[in-house]
Records
---
Amino acid sequence: MTVAAKQSVVPALLVAWAFAAAPTLLWLVRSSVASDGRLLALGSALLVATGMMLRRADRGRSNAASISVTTAATSTSLFPFVLLLAGLAFALLVRRTIAFHSLEALGVGLATYGALGLVLSRAAFRRALPLALLLATVLPMGGHLETHLGFPLRAKTAELVASLLSQLGYAVATSETILVVENHAAQVDLPCSGMKSLWAGLLFFFGASVVHRVRVGIVWLATLAGFTFALVAANAVRVAALSILALVVKNPVLTETVHAPLGILAFLVAGLLAVATLRLLPAESARSVVGRPSPRKLPLFAAAVVFGLFALVPTRTIAKVETDLGFAYQPPASLSVTPEAMSAVEQSFLKAQGASYSGKWRFATPEGLTGSFLIVVARTWRAQHPPEQCLAGAGNAVAGVSTELLAADFPLRVVSFANQGARAMYWFESAESRTADYGARVFDGILAAGRGAAPAWAMISVLFDQPVNPHEGAVTAVARALSTSTAAQLKEISP
């Protein structure tokens, strides 16, 4: 195959890739700008570094071995093309099921790296892997991972900690990410998921691999797996230590004091071990050994076609995910209620996110408690959110959020305002289950979307006009009345 023939295919591949990656790139720019542009700047710098690194890697002894895509010595292996197909298949699965932009971006990035393997030498393709992974870690997905994917990690951590405490002789009860010892509860919350330390650790590992020019191979992959396991294990040990301090020693001040230092110490130990191991691994040679050019037109043309087909597949919109449930909430008779109109902005926002029903009421109890409650019903988790965000946006000074157990199967989140104490509480209810953990709600929605049968969930948020004790009888009665009536009405519309 002549160089001219290859030149005719490469532009088609670039155009097809641009159309396929355009939605992901636009989302990446919007997300990065929303983060003050720091991620965009870092990502751009890493992209430039990747290009410079690839150019140096493909400098051979002749002009035929240069980095130019028109004369590069391409790999005869099918692995890059398989990688391209796997990345786009993953992105397509995400696009048509959960529409999770961060994960779709990872799939498109993987496919892009595979496409590069069709125009680079084997040595340059292999050497680019750490930098490509380093670039992937700066995607604006840290918060998304903690909220959307951190729940199973937190649940497993809580399970391990409960097992450890049981071995030490303590009677431990667990509910999702909540640990209960002698009527004292502690939750493995978002900061304890370990996702932030895992993200920072991978960023550090890939950066160290680039700095030390480590040769990518089986040993490097094994080191990466060991480092990842060490980070997860270190976080589990940290959570166990904090749980013992909170539930057994019952010293909240000491628990809060050592929370951050324990995390930093665990990260430093794992990081030092990773660096020591990387320094022992063989380094790439300064000059790539590149064979004679053997460009192939067929894989490039096939890649262009695959990218083009991917670009034609639309994202599964929320409107298609959500259907009219025919739900109209009837408040419990035990509460004296008055409907409260929602603003047009609130209604349009919730509808755009896929809410099937939303309503707000003022309430009063025979004991004199007054306040308001909001119910949002939807199949998609995108229509619901942690209410403390809206409470803070409405001008309330949110001082803290804690998890309380009204019963073993009834957790709720209590929101405290500055200088006022507990003023709000919320939880999520379905026909069959109840949770106060937004991550659990999201994870259930992701799994259900994969099965194609998402159940309806209600977000129930209560704002009191006065500070309350969540375990006080009148407050508990409000929560139970709303929970019982909502679950019963959701059962009526369940398939």
Note: The first helix runs from residue 3 to 34.
---
Amino acid sequence: MPVFHLSPSRIARFYYHECERYLRWHCTAKEDRISCGIPEIREKGSPVTRAILERGCRWEEDVIQNHMKETVRIAKGNSPLHQRFFGIAESISVLKDLNIGESAYQPVLEVPRSFYERYGLDANLCHFPPCRPDLIQAVQDKNGEIRLRITDIKASSELKNTHRMQISLYALILRDMVQTHQIPFPADRDTGAIWLSGRQEPENIALDFSIRMMEQFLRHDLVPILAMDARKVPWHLFHRCEWCEFYLFCRKEAEEKQSVSLISGLTARGRRFLRQMNPQVNTLDEFEAFLQTESSDKILESCGSLRGKREKLQHAVAALKQGKVIVHGGSSISMPLSEDVNIMLTLQAEPLSGKIYAAGFRRLKGKEVYGSGSAEKIFIAQNPDACGEMQTAFLHALHEELRTLDAYNRTGKRQSRNRFRSTPLTRMNSIFFTVFCRENPKMPDAACARCKCCSVFRTVPLQQRRNILHLQCLFRLRC
């Protein structure tokens, strides 16, 4: 039986990918992988992954040096800050000596035997090497008692479930380490903290639910996953897999076997539902046959992500098998015949910080208003610090385009006013547009006032007002 190397970060990534294969393959010791049938992977990782790790290190150093200063204890040394950590003995000594409000940066947590025994894990099979949470802080609870709270520093703009799970596992390990080494302060298993990118202080998060999930996983789910044959462990291919080192192998396997994982939008839980059916549904042929049965609608009702999607799934399977586009009911960005001016919006966010670095719009028709039948404006930030200026320039240009149309409509007769439609090219574009309109402080005040009572909106037929109202509300955010 191979040895499996586990850690809080790896188990947290399992919750991100929702993939048993990810955990089974990554935890297997490198010297055992070939004999288990696990393919070789590139060790360097992608440039984006390396950039994310580097950004995380810079954010850690920023937090420690500029936000915490005298309230944090740091291991001595000349190496870069993110590479410094306390040894096991030093960590125990530091944690025993923390004052209220003080934190230890990168103390080492050694997983004691009591942790393995508590969850029925074989230490010779499941190996947890020493791990390092970013910060452990001494805090005072509502009863006046001192507790040790885990704080994780993340170069992320929002709290994610993986953060909760990682902090929860740290807290469980700390609980047993405190008891083993007679540290006078108990681990805080009620509350953890996450220090998100750009924040002035950490955000406290409740751990009750995630602690229970993690303990359920350790007691009942972990060992069965590790005990599976590596060649037969369940897997699924979806958009998050691009962050996994085994992605290309799984993609090739999905194509060779014509797996249902090729269906765009099929969630990990939807794939698990199909796998657990009797008989199992694993291939496109099997799924096609199932969808043709009279009972398929009723069966799909039991899965939230598949409910009511029989026809759409049939089209998706047919498109993959036939290698051509299958048309079904849905929205279109085609220009409606009854509208005179159409403006399409597109925005792009970079993967590290989530900042919107490029934005643009294209206007179609409207020659009577603008003197030309189309116009296109694209704005790209030259560096991260220029993102705000780029967004402001984009909003000013978009406002000017709308103001011109509004001014034209105000001068003409009601019957001749030009109808207008706004179209974010994708759902993500719509979300990005909402976010940076909300965050941009330099949006022209005139845009807010004009879009509230704009005659362009009033002349749009009722059935077409939904998109206009959406755009109106976006501009109203800065009022």
Note: DSSP finds 19 helices and twelve strands in the chain.
---
Amino acid sequence: TGRIHEPAWDGLWLPYFSILDPCAMLHAMNDVDTCPLCGTSNVPLEQTGRYRYGHCSQCLGIFMDRRYLLDAQAEKSQYLTHNNDVNDPRYRAFVRSFVEVIAASEPEGACGLDYGAGPGPVVAVMLEELGYRVSLWDPYFHSDEDVLRERYDFLFACEVIEHFYHPAESFRHMKALLTDRGTIYCRTQLIPEDRPFSSWGYRNEETHVFFYHETSIAWIAQHILNCSYTIHDGTIVSFSYR
């Protein structure tokens, strides 16, 4: 299997992250009382630290009030402060379990897309070392339109989906980039059941703007992707058409 050379998103390559035209993206965002994943009206959470959040009553996702969303320059600057050295053994150890989940399901030589690769695409590098063919896309660091005109055996988004300003649109975009029997792999931390949101460290990153509950994952699979899903260990999720 491999890439099918045909437009996968009708020529449209908007990132559906959080950027490009910040003003347009902010105006397009739903208000805090409307979930950007499922569109359900919600009761806002109390102020939590520096930010205010809405808590969806249907998909149980938690999302940041749009007034706090960073503009493009500030967001990119934040990403550049992360560890981006693909040869750093600590960075590799951090993503190893994610690579192993992909490698356990995808045949050697399959073609994948690193969706939101960032400046240090360590997962892509590790998969290439295992014999996979991997393309990169990121609205800041790898913005080649041609990449989004092809289809892939699998997509992966490692610590990416929590950055989506428009999660419903982003997942539709990923679906359009898959072959008919493809799989999307995501790594993120799901909302914990054993502690309050206010004490959860994962929310402290200011570019983390949408947090997923297990119910959110089920909602995405049923209502957006129309596929099966697996939660592997609380941090790794796969959506599959096989």
Note: The two ends are 14 Å apart (CA to CA).
---
Amino acid sequence: GTIKMSEEKINIPNGKNIELPLLKALHDEGGKLYANEAIEKTKTYYLELTKEAKASRLESGQNRLNNRIAWVKQSLVNKNEIDRTEYGVWRITDKGEKRLAKEWNGWKPKYIELREHSKSIDKENKKEKGISKLKIAIYHFYSLRVLSEVNYPLTRQSIVLNVYNKLKRQLSAEDYENSNKTGLARWEAKTRWAVTDLYNAGLAKSLGRNKWIITKKGINKFNLWSDEKTSRE
């Protein structure tokens, strides 16, 4: 199969410019939306978005625009303008509402131009169809491992980021696709669920306020899993 490289220019919303439409999307829908709905609704404020811009992907395989909106959401969480304590749901806070009321009238869409190298690959070359879906158990193992390596509580988000750092070389394009239920990349949704599973199995304990620690039972289980893993490798 041959690979042809072509360069396309695409216009994509400027990151900072996305903040107000995202708040507006939440406000208009009664204050909160599931992540994937919030992402789709935010895009509707950018009328010049082309099919190519909407389909553009990062090298990791993630959709570029969805990823960008998710980062903007995180910066709004950090500013306390969005709340995401409810799993998979983004909610506008009072602070977000105040900002929106003050700034929305002055908002205009802004784009930046990206040059994208797109590869068109002959069909026969697409052997990647049978990509490994990392089994959920591996997320349990790595989440426990992350908790076992520290002697202080971790937030779910920091567990997720640490698991990602350990697993990123093993992740496939499929793992980066958005899971329909949560609007998160599959690997992230699975890691988040894994933490809940560990809690339900008594292997991790919640100290409230999104703080998680490993239990004695969790340490024993982790050591057992590690032994199994090394004996298999």
Note: Residues 178 and 184 are 5 Å apart (CA to CA).
